[in-house]
Amino acid sequence: GVLIAPIFKSESIEFCLRLKKENIPYVFIDGFIENTDFLAYTGEDIFQSGRVAGQLIDMVTSENNDTLVVNIAKNLQNVHHLSNRTNGFLSYFEKYGRNRGKKININIPDPSSESVRNAIDKIFVENPDIGSIFISGSKSYLIAIYLEEKGLKHINLIGYDLLDKNVKYLKTGVIKFLIGQRPEEQTYKGIKKLFEFLSLNKLPEKIEYLPVDIV
Asked: CA geometry: angle at 144 spanning 59 and 55, to 5°?
């Protein structure tokens, strides 16, 4: 059996086809890819967690301020969970959000500090009314470093994952919220489902969504 976090979509699909050919069962965590023959998935509802992030942004952003949505990925179309989160985030404001500011979406393919600094500098010059920033992935600390260097204490920063680098800036107040995905629980349950299927011939629940933690 195989436990997979399908970060890169095309590579994951290719791998899943090989597993199916070899009749090897696999369980997804941290996201699943539709139209694959996976045994089970345990983790967040990615689209809905994006909507949660939208609600958090809406709580702390004034009605007319703009929001910057940042994806940090080399090939965004292939990193499907970031796209799904972004779509979920934007969907919240279609019906429910009180914030009426612009939602400015950018992708930064290079995660180096210099590339991030140059990209955000350019966006702030073009959009001086940004009040909040949403990071779709786990690299919130890169934006936090920028905000701290520039002394931009009025910007609300929201992102994902309780990495030590992110938690550091959450504690100092540079990051307003972090959304945790319970990775230990995802992994534990994924392994358990594989074990029970292979050892006890127990067919697991196909999709088990776990709640996210707002810290």
From this structure: 20
